[in-house]
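User: Sequence in, structure out. Go.
Assistant: Echoing your sequence, followed by the structure tokens.
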Amino acid sequence: MNYQWYPGHMTKAKRQMQEDLKLIDLVIELVDARVPVSSRNPDIDTLGKNKARLILLNKADLADERENQKWMEHFKAQGYYAVKVNSRSGAGLKSIQPVVQEACREKIERDRKRGIMNRPVRAMVVGIPNVGKSTFINSYAGKACTKTGNKPGVTKGKQWIRLNKNLELLDTPGILWPKFEDQQVGLHLAMIGSINDEILNIEELALEVIRCLVKEYPETLAQRYQADESGEPLQILEQIAGNRNCIQKGGVLDYAKASGILLDEFRSGKLGRITLERV
């Protein structure tokens, strides 16, 4: 299956981003801690190359903690500031402000020398669809200032949010890039829900999730679904269908329903903490 999704509004959003970067001191990029490489839009590096950069490993609670630590070290070694967060619960958010001040120290010092005191750092929040930008902003600001949803592409317009006297955030719509050179990237994004499910073959996607789990976290399938992880992916999907009573009239297994259950439980963390990409 070919994984690709680049609706027209993303081209417009990217152009708007290029314009807004002139106003920005810092680019805060959210990535999904389960797929820290696939969930990074390569265009962001080009757009933000002369700006201070902070990477937030969001949904860190859904990812393998050992891998979270390795990815933090990896990004820091590349010259980024990095913080792991769970925007939904608020874990890790308190540690962001000091890192923002550190990342923008030169800018703050420059302002001070010019006699400009207390001008807030202006940060653009960027990331691919469904990575949790709006949830992060709402949690960080302590109030619902942006619309959130579990469908990719909910954030439409530009909005500035003043958090405190030291920081203003500009929320941006989630954007992908026109072509995934590596189809593994597209597959990972489909798995975590950053590509619209309506354009995907959900049963094929579920089989790919099973292949990944068998390779890296085989015990999860046995624990959650009493499935035999030594079986073929299709056999395992059949076992999941049986375990969850996904049966149509005449005793026919409902593969689509079983696939939906597996994807939902994988994405929501019910299968445990899983990282699909290793440093």
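User: And one key feature?
Assistant: The first helix runs from residue 9 to 20.
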